Amino acid sequence: MQVRHTQRQGNKIELQMTPMIDIVFQLLVFFIMTFKIVTPEGDFNIRMPIAAPSEGQPDPDLLPPIQVRLQSTGTGHLSAIRMGEKSLGRNFEELNKEIRQIVGPSTGPNVTGAAEIEIDADYALRFEYVMDAITAISGYVGEDGSIITLAEKIKFAPPRKP
To answer: What is the rounded average pLDDT of the residues 56-75?
Structure first.
């Protein structure tokens, strides 16, 4: 029995690049055409407390900052919401109503842009309650489904250690 050894020639496999490029362009066009630009959720204008020199005298035409105090229990749950001297219990809807009365759209032009709200939360308060407060303060959904902004300037007081 005789076995022939044939040498294999270096057969090269050529890739067809044209169909690959066509597919890439089709995918690119698909993603560009289906891309929808939406307002980012949770995009708040929040100033955190920092140890910096003061910025000078505040503008007397602006409203004074509205102070919202969030008190917690020892386990981090919300025990009370206070706005100034008024106690709101633990109801964020009541907080939203109070903010609407102060800076709502019926109070005049440019009041919502000038309103500044300071959140003073206990050190041990859980994050979910702070986010609920920011949601109640920043605005609400109108009857027609549009978002009505109440306050864009939200700042935090330095944390209170237990």
So the answer is: 71
